[in-house]
Amino acid sequence: MEKRTDKNSYTILFAIGMVFIVGSILAFAASALKPNIDENKRLEKQQNILYAMGVNENEPGSVAMISADKVAAEFSKYIVKQLVIQGKEVKVDGKAYLIDIKKEQAAAKDASYVRKLPLFLGKKEGTIFYIVPIRGKGLWDAIWAYVSMDENMVVQGIFMDHKGETPGLGANINKRFFMDDFIGENMLDASNQFKGIAVSKGNADPTNIDKNDNEVDAIAGATITGDGVAAMIRSELKVYSSYFIHLKNN
User: Fold this and answer.
1) Angle at CA 221, nearest 5°, toward 182 and 134?
2) 1 pLDDT higher than 60
């Protein structure tokens, strides 16, 4: 006599039941952990913004963010204003850091949508920093950066990271030797038109003395990632250039 547990129908029902149970557990876990996940994302964004304006715990050659237990207080201390630029409108928004750059980029593919652009104003030792979050595409996946500039779009600091670039090659965009090369570089050309910063293999200035050539030295073996960094800077910061031009003329 065949046991009920030997039937195909029992196996199917058991599988469906397990899928339902496991799915319910995962959904509950995701819901329960969401506040912690959101809080960690918030802290990470604030750490990156502060790093770009030089508020960090770096030692020679190292990349060290402000610790999580200090970041909220340091963010309140150094970030004096958060702005959202949308078309010709610029408004103060204390939660500008919550804007999802990836979603805004996707929405902007619709020509009728006016993209929201977050901008952070930091102040340290009497100097104003303008920090912009940007996002692009590397060799394998997403790359992103937080770029700190002065009112003339000269880079004061930068933090870059990636999702899946090649270890030892493109992944080195988040190393000091690469990021620090951008400091002092001008986003504008000699005619004060936006040009961006190229990441060049044939850079005639490998020691990065010339800060008005609109380029930095590439990472050996990481051509596509470097091109992605340059394209990200060129496309993402250009949309902010009208704000800085207005800033200079007023």
Assistant:
1) 40
2) no
Q: Is 234's pLDDT higher than 90? A: yes
Return the structure tokens found at 160. Answer: 């870059």
Q: Is the pLDDT of residue 41 over 90?
A: no
Task: Locate 248 and state its tokens.
Answer: 């200079």
Q: Distance of CA 112 to CAs 115, 135, 156, 236, Å? A: 10, 21, 34, 18
3-state secondary structure (DSSP) of residue 86: strand
Give the per-residue pLDDT at 23. 72
Which residues are paired to 154 by β-bridges?
Answer: 186
Q: Is residue 26 part of a domain?
A: no
Under a CB-based contact definition with an 8 Å cutoff, are residues 201 and 215 in contact?
A: no
Domain encompassing residue 177: 42-248
Distance between CA atoms of residues 67 and 65, nearest Å: 6
Give domain status of residue 124, yes or no. yes
Confirm if 198 and 208 have CB atoms less than 8 A apart. no
Rounded distance between C-alpha atoms, residue 173 and residue 60, angstroms: 17
**Whether 157 contacts 54, CB under 8 Å:** yes
Nearest to 199 by CA among 178, 169, 180, 183: 178
Is pLDDT at 146 greater than 50 in this prediction? yes
Take residue 155 and report the two structure tokens written for it.
């880079």
Residue 30 lies in a domain: no
In a domain? residue 2: no
Mean pLDDT for the stretch of residues 104-109: 94
- Overall number of domains in the chain: 1
Give the gyration radius of the chain's Cα atoms.
23
